[in-house]
Amino acid sequence: LGHGSGGQLSAELLRDVVLPGLGGAGEGVPEDGAVVPVGGVDLVVSTDAFVVSPLFFPGGDIGALAVHGTVNDLAMMGAAPVALAVAYIIEEGFAVADLRRVTASVGTAAAAAGVPVVTGDTKVVGRGAADGLFVTTTGIGRRLPGARVSAAYARPGDVVLLSGPIGAHGTTILSARESLGFEAEIASDTRPLHRLVATMVAGAERDIHVMRDPTRGGVASALNEIAAASRVGIEIDEAALPVPAPVAAACELLGLDPLHVANEGCLLAVVAADRAVAVLAAMRSAPDGRHAVRLGEVVDAHPGRVVMNTLMGGRRVVDMLVGEQLPRIC
Amino acid sequence: MNTIQARVACRIEIHGTVQGVGFRPFVYRLGRGLGVDGSVRNDDGLVVVEAAGPPETIATLAARLRTDAPARARVSELRIRELDGGAPAPGAGFTVEPSVRRGPAGHGPELRRTPPDLATCEACLAELFDPGDRRYRYAFVNCTDCGPRATIIDALPYDRARTTMDAFAMCADCAAEYADPADRRFHAEPIACPVCGPRLAWHIPGQDAARGEEDACGEDALRAAETCIRGGGIVALKGLGGYQLVCDATDEAAVGRLRARKHRPAKPLAVMVGSLAAARHLARVDDAEAAPLTSVARPVVLVEARPGRGLASAVAPGAPRLGLFLPYSPLHHLLLADLDRPLVVTSGNLSAEPIAIDDADARRRLAGLADGFLTHDRPIRSRYDDSVTHVVAGRASVVRRARGYAPEPIDLPVPAPEPLLAVGGQLKHTFTVARGGTAVTGPHTGDLEQQATMEAFTANLAHLCRVVGAEPHVVAHDLHPGYLSTQYAATLPVHRRIGVQHHHAHVASCAAEHGVTGPFIGVAYDGLGLGDDGTLWGGEVFVADLATYRRVARFGRAPLPGGAAAVRRPVRMALGYLFGGEGLDERTRATALRLARPLLRRLPPREVSTVRRMVERGVNCPVASSAGRLFDAAAALLDLRDDATYEGEAAVALEAAAGPGGAAPELPWRLVARDGMLVYDATRTLLALLEGRRDGVDVAVLAARFHATVAAVTIAVCSRVAARHGLRTVCLSGGVMQNRLLAEALLGGLSAAGLEPLINERVPVNDGGISYGQAAVAAARLRRG
Ligand SMILES: [Fe+3]
Ligand SMILES: [Mg+2]
Ligand SMILES: [Zn+2]
Ligand SMILES: [Zn+2]
């Protein structure tokens, strides 16, 4: 209950229930995947389960999302994706045509990303035991030479970069699910980011300290995770925050904070200050990073906390989404 | 002659607010006058007297320590014991001895008492304006009866060395006054004069402050600031507890500029006037209001403005009342006397941020707001914004508790068995530390979502804990996991955490300050607070005591379309009630939508359709049983406010529209029983507002009738609950109770119904009182085990 929105409650569920049961696996800093050295090669493994309603939405579907999500998780570990495995859990009565459509989308997305799907599994469960279709994707990748990124590696003075506009994916899904009427103007940003990462990392291997895709819980949660894991403060500028006008308008009407809305096609990078300009230029040269911005910086003040310099001249604490964001106004 | 037998020696410990109030000079004169031998000293947070003399003289001394104590002192207890050894020798005389410091926790079990700042006294004022006096026009004149205290104190015992005046070495004249028992500045710790004390300076932003260059000093600085204000400029003034922004309150353009720069479009601005007579020219000020206005705390007092008296209309647009206050420091007195006009004097900050105190920080944060800085070189140790109060049914009730009031302790009727910290709410933030029967509530800081407020909170907390000797073992916090205070509480290394429901804290704050410990009826009318059922509350009636509560009645629920977005935009709240109010049946909804057609047509179609869909699908629509949100909806349905640029703006507009009151007939309402609770179904009330609009009824009439309705509902609920539970005391609290029209209707109506209503006076009804309420609840729970 309440643990689904990718904020603090998800983090607590992971910390208190899941990780202890696994005997310490993944202890410490929460990352998108794990590095497994095999025969002198650093392999990276990541797995993700996808549940989304609706299955098809402007800009994508669950199939594309499953491919991009895992490709991106590998990329955020500084890895080049090598292969994917896909498993379906299908509710009895799910339309075969839809399954075909999803599968075609998986194939198209994998091909476009240049990452083959090499194995998979399919299970059918009784009515009510699942909601239509769940997809689990596992990926392996090879760590890019020299890349060494972790949410714990942000240092005061570092610069925070963001690869592109935010807020589209979550708003699109919500609007499509509840027929709120924004579907015509907004589409999910779902896309693979590994090529952008390769461009960024080349020549800046040691200077990129953190990479994170701000999916569930949005930019706010990703930055808070970085601040907590690295025990640093982060300051961002509202003026730099790229929120497309239709997204801003929808968020305003829906009462959503774009900082808390999920994304599937952008990344945050924490970069050594002296290379920030070069990395930003590299990002902008890549098709998936054309709209990259310098969002803010890492500071040693207020460790663990993210603060935004607002357009009004104030400094607002940006915290993780707690539950379903009940208003704090009295 | 048997002198041995006729002589006793004893030690008298004086507890209470006895430092910074001229207590040692008083005891010194008393001891001398009575001819006893002995001494007086500040000992940690207490005053200790050792005296020897004839038994009846010592008895007189002890009695007079209470009866003749200085006006600002508050003696809570005298502890007297006989001295076995070390009795003052006969003929030794009476002296003031050096202060004694103790360990971090002091004498325990009570907290040390820090005196609040005191407004300039008459004697000092006379000197300030006496051309023959050596302190003529000196902006830092003070004495044992007046001047800065809490804002300059580093630690207790209260001595100059432990204040920010330590940096100024007394000149020979000041030192003589300080040491002369006959002088009214005997042991006046912040004593100063133009020769040795702090000095004014004038800066213009943009000029190179790094080189420490000043554009003018002393009297010239003051004159420069006055010229700036006369010319329509905005001056950042370093006051007692922080920077203030000052401009001519009669200059429409100046006030408009201040609003634009501060990003504060509508929230009323406080106005300082030179005298009570000047206040009475601008507003109706009755005697009950004159009392706080002229008190040593010198709060801003909310009073009914007289229109057409020359104030710029932008000072308090659309508000029922005007905030007025009188000068409280010599600097303010000089400005008001020289400029001879009302001045806007407002906190030096951006809206919702804490007031700036540090010079460099102020220069940075206020550079874009002020045309000049009138500063000085006495550092401000602690941040104390101006307090705000208003009079409800003849009694002063504080709305914002800061300078002049905080950190004066407030009793806890159920003493805290362990030292505790209550971290408060989220907005209008305060914290409270408590030990034994004493609670110390820190000054108002603001919205914790502002990083500057968080920093002010933690800095104030650390400072005040150290000064008063609090080392909390227990922390009390709100149930809302998203409050930054709750998250802060989770990081503290304490051995127990106590979650206190928001509205229980509200009503407990009222009960506790009135010394109520037994069961009472608690009425919490509020904006929003998290309930124990995971929904938002805010229109609640409890049967409660300090430790527990049971919810016996509530307002009907409505969705908040977009959560906080619906709070910022009250018209969305109106849509929430229209589309999804609790208990709406299809027919009533159809009627409501028909009646609301003019409203629905007036709003952006996209907004109406989206909100409707959000309500139908429950998208980001938390539900709340809130009185505050019902007031918002009513204000929007009456076309008074679509948006709120500050907290409670729509409700303020509704109160203003209703006028000063008088009995208005109720609108239709009903109570329904649901889940063993009484529920106020407001549907009919809101429909009646819409019908009234359709029929062309005056908005003022409808607004007054709406207030009367909420009062009638409440009185009916309380009467039933009282009869059923055999209770009489009703504790009123919550931000909605800041509505004076409603509060007075409730106080009058509940009394008429044979009940005993109480409302907060010493801590705010709004969230500024939450931390004190949390402390009262936590103490009672700890006591219960
Ligand atoms: Fe409240
Ligand atoms: Mg992921
Ligand atoms: Zn004085
Ligand atoms: Zn002097």
TrEMBL record, chain B:
GO MF annotation, one: zinc ion binding
Pfam families reported for this sequence: Acylphosphatase, HypF_C, HypF_C_2, Sua5_yciO_yrdC, zf-HYPF
Keywords from the UniProt entry: Hydrolase, Ligase, Metal-binding, Zinc, Zinc-finger
Top-level EC class: ligase
Pathway: Protein modification; [NiFe] hydrogenase maturation
Reactions catalysed according to its record: C-terminal L-cysteinyl-[HypE protein] + carbamoyl phosphate + ATP + H2O = C-terminal S-carboxamide-L-cysteinyl-[HypE protein] + AMP + phosphate + diphosphate + H(+); an acyl phosphate + H2O = a carboxylate + phosphate + H(+)
Residues annotated as domain YrdC-like: 219-404
InterPro entries for this protein: Acylphosphatase-like_dom, Acylphosphatase-like_dom_sf, Acylphosphatase_CS, Carbamoyltrans_HypF-like, Carbamoyltransferase_HypF, DHBP_synth_RibB-like_a/b_dom, HypF_C, HypF_C_2
GO biological process: protein maturation
Name this polypeptide is given: Carbamoyltransferase
The species this protein was found in: Dactylosporangium aurantiacum
Gene: hypF
